[in-house]
Amino acid sequence: MSILKKALRDPITHFVLIGLALVAINHFWANYQGEQGRTITVSAAEIDRLSVLWANTAGRLPTGEDKQQIIDQYVQQEALVREAERLGLGDDDTIIKRRLAQKMDFLVSGESKAVTPSSDADLEIWFEQNRDKFAAPERRSFVHIYFSPEKHGGSIETAAANALRAAKSGTDWKGLGDPFIQKRSYAAIPESEVTRLFGPDFASAMFKLTAGEWSPPIGSAFGLHLVRIETIDNAAEASFEPIKAEVAAAWQEDQTSKAKQAALEKLVRGYDVVIESASE
Fold this sequence. Notes:
Elements: H1 2-9, H2 11-37, H3 44-58, H4 64-86, H5 94-110, H6 120-129, E1 139-147, H7 149-152, H8 156-168, E2 185-190, H9 191-198, H10 200-206, E3 218-219, E4 224-233, H11 244-269
Antiparallel strand pairs: 1-2, 1-4, 3-4
């Protein structure tokens, strides 16, 4: 008995007993969690939700047999998901993480609805601070003569130079160059649209031209072009009253975006972010 008392007073014995107790607790807790995770409950509300989704796809209400198939599919999917989670299959899956982030982003967006402007005066102040967003952009009407790199190869610049001389001397431009997959004349289009059609380099060069003269060859995503600006419609400032509804919608979008960004920043502040340097 004295040996037992001595052992019980020994700190090492205390340490071993505590360790065994923790192992036992962990074992029973894991079993409990496992048992809880082995139960798949299909609630009446879930069946109704799945039935509505099924009806929207099938175009009719599900029969009793259809509902049983819906339930079976739900149970199978739930079992597969739980087994995948148990095996840790989604831990490093970028697609799953992105999908979860998108769902959370949607929830944050839903909670970040901006209020309406308190008065027209406040809205007009915001409009003045963002007037450039509503100004009509500069637009240009132009014609162009196209030269295909597939047809001319290394002599494409020579072909363009010869056509430029002919166009400047009065030759009808419509008979020069090669057929073009899109139009050869455009009316009143902004730089953003020219960029979309021909690429940023072409648009930038074209919007530096003056009207009435054929340009030197300008490169695009398609090949080379000789361009003549027909008319220039200068950018026009917007007035508040005629577009007040449009301004209000833009204000709402801007405020919602700011509210969402603030919510995301608050969310991130709840975490300790550790950025490890890349190994050499």
